[in-house]
Amino acid sequence: MVENKIVLNSTYWYDKIGKKQEFATVNDLTVISVDSTGNIISYFYDDIWDLSSYSINPVRRDSTLDFNQIEKAHRKQAKIITYMILMYGKSRFGRQLEAKTIKGQYFRGCIVPISRWLTEKNLNFTDFFSDESILFQYVKYQISMKKDFMHLPAFFRLLSNTYHESFPYKIVINKKTKTYLDEARKIREKSKKQTPIVPSRILSYAIEARWNHIDYIFNNIDELTNFIENYMNQKADHEKPQKKFLNAVKFYKLEYLFKKYHINNRAEFITFIKQLQATSKNLIHTYSGMRSEEAYSLNINSFKQDNSTSFIIGITTKLDGRQKETRWITSYKIKVIFEIFKKINISILKKHKNFTMLRNPPLFLSVNFLRLNNMESLSLSSLDANNELYLDKSKIVLTQKDLDELESVDPFRNWTEEDKFQLNSRWHFATHQYRRSLAVYSIKSGLVSIGALQIQLKHLFRDMTLYYSNGATNNVSIDKLYSEDLIKTLKDTKPEIKTLEFIKNVIFSDEKLFGSYGKKIELKKSSITGNYSSYILEDKQKTLKLFQNGDLYYKETALGGCISVDPCDSFLTNSLTECFSCDCGILKKSQIQNVICKEKNLLKQFDDASIEYQTINKELMQLESLYQKLNGENNE
Fold it and tell me: Of 376, 326, 384, which Cα lies nearest the Cα of 349?
């Protein structure tokens, strides 16, 4: 089937080709890659190796190795090393390496930069692997120049652990190099920055603006598909093309849509379709938390419903290293995106010579189909999250409130020192930001006030809580497995957010703390000499470990907070005064005053003789009495 190149392209290189070839027989005619029907794509002698048929996301720029980046003198050596990795490289799950990993981690991350350095030094790969001092010089250079060295240990480990008599290079890492790399890695890990959440104000606006585009286009989808099928699918007419284009726009009643999106010719229409794809992909990430390569695995029929639950079926490799079908909980609203592209893609593909065989065309079909005739193999669009349908730039620039929100989620990061997070700078979206934002916001922590975003995503948060809880996947069969990887992200994020919430509301509290645990915190603060923030930064990992192990818990309460890991009996009886004597209680005078004020207002709604009045009044009197005692403590 033609669509196998998109969906079933996961046959690993070794299973398909490698086991038929001995390393000893490698020569210029050694086969590197074949397509889904067995036709050869790349040979060893080619300077561009196309590995797209072994990739979950066969976008050509992500799946090709371009040896033209390497000097001719080093090229054959580089190919031999790459072939070795292709043949013997394994993931942490013991599986054949993905094309993306081979390209990003080993080829672009190690082989290309090493070859360039060797060229500058008038050396070659034989010198590099045979002389430990040369290898150490390179490692030291990469680290001193603050270049990417994080892939080097895996690269060295793979080549040193893999031995074949015909492989000309045997690498042995000496203790000096290994120690140097380990120390540098530890320093890099400490300074590694967490993926930022999208500030809630910006995300809320972007969601609203994107849905406005989608709804408008959906209302014109029949006219658009007719235009594609009957005009764009025809060969471009070079005689008066502009006049014929405008006549077609008028005939299919698309004048207002084309004016709105500034479409004046064929090329601008193709750009419009690609921007529509990017807008849609951003929304899918927002409402599912899936990764970019997972979104590229979707087809036009990936949206499904099971009773009242909406979900998207796609492919992931994050569970055990193999491609596996999984589900992401999503919003029913996402269905319209799949309806739009089902119509658009079918219209585009009607000129495909095997159209009748295409059961599940990809969701993000390459716009090249609108440029070229008789396309034989399916390919995907390569999309940029920021090259999408129009967003008002004035509404996605960082305000002080946005920066405060980022700081509340990660108070130890110096946001203003980073160019990307300057006041009044434009926010740049990235697909992985949506995953972290969804995890953070769905936890509904006390870190941020998300306002309109809570309304926009409330049904999604509810369904995620329902299905991504501890027992969510116990009652579904393996072929209907929900995204275990996203469950792990949510579980890992929760203690992190609770730790930051605890630090923000308790450790960095602007007001004095009372209550049994609050007093302990105040004593701890007074005993610390020097920079208090530095102390907390050092202590953060210890606190996070307590939350992760379940030894510490924190939740905000009406009177301040509570750190009890056990269920609260007083919560069931709605007794606020118990917090004053509880060992886990954290009290804040401003919040106690707020509760007293609300209790007084509540009393006014009841008759003085009613049971409700007497119960509330009793609680109020106790609160006022305890509050006066706190005032006495404060004056001591």
Answer: 376
